[in-house]
Amino acid sequence: MIAKNPTFTFVCYLFKENENDINKLFKLVKGQSVINEYDPIEVKNDNFNNIQGFIKKTEPKEPKWTKKLKTVFNFPKIENQSNSFLFFITVKNRTFAFTMGYSYHSINKSKIVQDFGIKIAANELDMYSIKAIDARRLDYNAKLKRETTPNNDFMSSFDFDKNMELLHSLSGTTDKSTFSKSLIGKDSLKVITELNLDLINDFCINLLDSYNKTNFKTNGFDFIENLKIIDFDEEIKVAHEKLKERIVNKDKSLTLIQPSADYYDIDSYTIEYKNYNKKIDELNLDTLLLFLEQNNLRNNELNLKDLYININLGNKDEPVKQSIIELSYFEYFIKENKKYIFTDNKLYHVKTSYYKIIDKDLEEYITKELKDLNVIAFNHKNEKGELSEGIYNDDFSIKNSHIVINLDKQNFKNIPNRPYDKIEICDILTKNKEFICIKRYKNSSQSLSHLLSQCIVSCELLINEKKYRDIINKSFYNVHSIGLFDDLDNINKNEITYIYGIISKKEILDLPFFSKIALRQSIKNIVSSGIKVKVLKIDNNS
Predict the structure, then answer these.
(1) What does the alpha-carbon distance between residue 290 and residue 528 come to, in Å, rounded to a whole number?
(2) Is 100 inside a domain boundary?
(3) In a domain, 225, yes or no
(4) Can you give the pTM of this predicted structure?
(5) 20 to 30 A Cα–Cα from 330, which one of 143, 419, 438, 495?
(6) What is the total count of domains within the chain?
(7) Burial 287-301 (b: 16+ CB within 10 A, else e)
(8) 68-87 pLDDT, tens digit each
(9) Which residues are bridge partners to 56 per DSSP?
(10) Residues 147-153: contacts with CB under 8 Å, at least 24 apart
């Protein structure tokens, strides 16, 4: 009987071209390479002279739970110890790292090929051989989600929106791959493979060949080209500078993101900058800015490489340390009208043709005027001198009182299918059956997200709930002594228009890219129901 090759579970990374200096492939923490925490391991023979191994042995420590329970239990001496190992191999002038234990935390992520694993997975897997995905929603809250299935399934069976989400991880099984039946691809590639280690050079060559394929285009993953990862250090440096500008200027277009779907047991966080630190329960921009201001750190001297978030996990004694650079999300334009997205310490260029398609789709709905209405500019303040959408809605309804009612802040309860929700029908309702929902764009996608949600919920209830239509009729009748709908059982949807009123300072409707995608999708959802849609651009003169 022929002996089987041993089965290995490898997590491997590919480093960028010409990144072969092992000393630079370890992560820097506070300016120091963590290579100093590792001991080199000698290889056994000259067949492996292109391989270097390193091991890290941690000191045994008493577990957290014994410390907390000592007042009740008389424990014997209990200590935990975790060891980490990684080795580097250079083939065809390209260096790979294979990690075991927690050694992946020691990799210098700025040196790796960021789409290495996910591109190989997309090249090797078919659309019907998917077992799990991680996806990050690209909007103000940048939610990260994970979906799994016990057996291979079609990609279409997963709740993944290729227009609104970034594929963060892709896994599945296949019989077609030459090097592994099971693959999990993200920035790294995790494989379960039977391998004779004497052939590990050939294994790495197979990985490199797979990465350079374009099978993903015919495998159904062509959408990953809409967002292309940028590996050029100079462009990444520009992104880091723009991140610092946003922190220093308290720019609300910056979002702090969930670290990883792997960290499901987060107890708390600790912000750390040099000798300063503060424990927090929730990770968001406001808590970060407060920490920096309290310690007089929010200035041009701020060094992002010294700003860390320690992720305190309930099931681990040691926190996971991540740079603020790894936990930030924002978008920006640069010269030649190029659109970039920075997230998870990765820089993506939005494909120009993709961007133009979104703009073109929205153009037909955008207007600055509405028939029979005086669309006034926004420059309205409350008694405290603060800009106020509520005051604007009051003024809008007064100047158009012959044809509208003001429903701003009028929340209705006990709607069927939503008995516990408070529903706001719209801000302004017109005699022409126009449901106008108004929000001011404040350099953040959050308010726009609320606007889209308001329109979708109101539209769905209008179509499906007679009681909702009755509330609308009575509200209009109370002001104008006439109902809006003659027959509550049979409304003419073609006479109804939902209007997204967006207050914006710029002449054109300049929104974050993924807010435009979300707006387009929201419009499509309403239009598909038979109801018309407009996007009203309201000038902001404040």
Answers:
(1) 45
(2) yes
(3) no
(4) 0.79
(5) 438
(6) 3
(7) bbbebbeeeebbeee
(8) 898 899 999 888 888 899 99
(9) 84
(10) 152/128, 153/128
